[in-house]
Automatic annotation (TrEMBL):
Domain AB hydrolase-1, residue spans: 33-293
Protein known as: Alpha/beta fold hydrolase
Presence of the UniProt keyword Transferase in the record: no
Signal peptide: 1-19
Entry similarity comment: Belongs to the peptidase S33 family.
Organism: Emticicia soli
Keywords: Hydrolase, Signal
Length: 309
């Protein structure tokens, strides 16, 4: 009977332990300057960065940690709430797991918002914050997408597209559906696409598609819905947070693709004014994924910023 009770105990305990396991992996020497890569989402993962770029960055003298946020990608957790508070707790647990007191964070896309809010909340734990194709003024991005796609519809006399934009504009701006529709219409019109793929970018994409990382590119379609249910900060402007972070003495950097069409010229100019001209990089023939579109320029820029006094 005692053995049966113990067995039942472990059977009941195992799913809980498994559900709370965060996928993470470190590359490079632990004695090198530490970088944590925070992926996009909610619904994303770090497989593209890990499958194409992390080893190349580590060989430049850095200790690079990748992970998938709880409930996203390979960090499967049916109990995840997808809140920023939860994301902060998991970042803190990563620092503890890898014995890190202070790190540089690279925040990509939605990961830029997570990274910004985390750095604002825990400035003592962040050496540098590097934003890469990072979201910051979300409503400005949505407005830019809808207004520019509307122009495409007018120029092409595409009444179906115009009707779709009109329908999106009627949705609640704080809803998961509004966010989803904005990004889907942007994607369908090539806003995330590199204008002129190079031989190197094609090679990197092919390597990724044939790798185990592509096979583990898990997308949780419930993540955005749960995020909008459980989190109050669903459509925010983090420019005030970034200005506050700068006052803490934390180095801020920002790298964007010149053809990342989800951002307006005004937004990019605002970001440059916040971080400063010498800490802002705009890469040509590059869209939302600079570490694949223009990997060498991405690596050179990160290395220069990390090693600058």
């Amino acid at each position: 009977m005692r053995h049966i009770l113990l067995l039942l105990f472990f059977v009941n305990l195992t799913p809980t332990l498994s559900a709370q396991t965060i996928y993470s992996k470190a590359y490079g020497k632990a004695s090198n300057p530490a970088i944590i890569f925070v992926h996009g989402g909610p619904r994303g993962n770090s497989t593209l960065f890990e499958g194409t770029t992390v080893e190349a960055l580590a060989t430049r003298g850095f200790y690079v940690i990748v992970y998938d946020r709880r409930g996203e990608g390979r960090s499967i957790d049916t109990t995840a709430t997808f809140t920023f508070k939860e994301a902060f707790a998991d970042l803190n647990s990563l620092l503890q797991k890898y014995n890190l007191k202070k790190v540089t964070i690279i925040g990509h896309s939605f990961g830029g918002i997570v990274s910004t809010l985390y750095t604002d909340a825990y400035p003592e734990k962040v050496e540098q914050l590097i934003l890469v194709g990072a979201l910051f003024s979300q409503q400005e991005t949505y407005d830019h997408i809808l207004s520019t796609v509307k122009k495409i519809g007018i120029e092409k006399h595409n009444n179906e597209l115009l009707a779709r934009i009109s329908a999106i504009e009627k949705l609640s701006k704080n809803s998961a559906e509004y966010r989803k529709e904005c990004y889907e219409v942007a994607s369908e019109n090539g806003y995330f696409r590199m204008p002129n793929p190079t031989a190197e970018s094609k090679r990197l994409n092919e390597i990724y598609q044939q790798s185990e990382f592509s096979k583990s590119n898990i997308r949780n379609d419930l993540a955005p819905i749960r995020f909008y249910q459980d989190e109050t900060l669903v459509n925010i402007n983090t420019k005030p947070n970034l200005k506050k972070i700068a006052k803490h003495g934390i180095k801020l950097f920002a790298l964007y693709g010149k053809q990342d069409n989800i951002f307006s010229a005004k937004q990019l100019n605002d970001m440059q004014n916040i971080v400063g001209k010498t800490r802002f990089q705009l890469i040509d023939n590059c869209s939302h994924y600079p570490f694949v579109d223009q990997q060498k320029a991405f690596l050179d820029t990160i290395e220069n910023w990390m090693k600058a006094k």
